[in-house]
Design a protein that fits this description.
Rossmann fold, elongated, alpha/beta, 9 helices, 2 domains
Length: 226
């Protein structure tokens, strides 16, 4: 793995952030007295960002008439609440820290490429003790573009002092797979994340169900596009 770059998505890939994100949605809806519905289906919208989660929650509650100005205010409240409670229940998936350490020791360059804001991404990684493993953390607002634009992924590799010709993406959504495809980079899909579609149906180059499978999956993904 020496001089090889592994780029990870964050939510649903490295960290199970759903509990704290859903709590932030509950908080903003509670401010509008919108309660009494099952919020769990909103989990499938995590990959699309906080605003999309709020819109879906309102739809489930039968409140699709909320004007954009109120949505803007709700989103600001969501971000404030989430930032203050970013790692209350969130946790790295089992085996993440072990594999990050092993990849570092093998000489790999590691990066995060996420559509979460960079400041929130760094805060989450620091709270969970994962920040030191990464050579670059690239959020939605780090570069002029973001996923699914391939420039987001390529930019993350470059900021990690990596080579796009020797890199792989690891993610949990169709956005991650499509971004990697457009960038011409092999991609490993995690089937334990937040995708509403089975990862196997999205057809990444390899699929893992736990982090003990990652290093073999990286090899298989690279060979699949060689």
């Amino acid at each position: 793995m020496k001089n090889f770059t592994v780029v990870f998505d964050l939510d649903g890939t490295l960290v199970d952030t759903a509990p704290d994100l859903l709590n932030a949605v509950r908080h903003v809806l509670g401010l509008m007295d919108v309660t009494g519905f099952d919020i769990e289906p909103v989990r499938n919208h995590i990959s699309y960002g906080g605003r999309a989660m709020i819109v879906e929650a309102l739809r489930l509650a039968g409140r699709e008439d909320v004007p954009d100005s109120d949505l803007d205010r709700m989103f600001d409240e969501f971000v404030d609440h989430y930032a203050a409670n970013i790692a209350v229940e969130s946790a790295a998936y089992r085996g993440v820290e072990l594999v990050l350490r092993a990849l570092n020791e093998a000489g790999a360059r590691l990066a995060v490429c996420t559509n979460k804001r960079e400041d929130l991404s760094r805060k989450l990684l620091k709270e969970l003790g994962l920040h030191p493993y990464f050579h670059a953390v690239v959020g939605r607002d780090t570069l002029p573009v973001h996923k699914p634009d391939p420039g987001h992924l390529i930019g993350a590799i470059i900021l990690a002092d990596g080579n796009p010709g020797r890199a792989v993406m690891v993610g949990d959504s169709d956005t991650d797979v499509n971004t990697a495809r457009q960038a011409g980079i092999p991609v490993v899909g995690c089937n334990f994340g937040y995708s509403p579609v089975p990862m196997e149906d999205i057809r990444p180059d390899a699929v893992i169900s736990n982090y003990g499978e990652l290093q073999n999956a990286i090899s298989n993904a690279v060979q699949a596009v060689a």
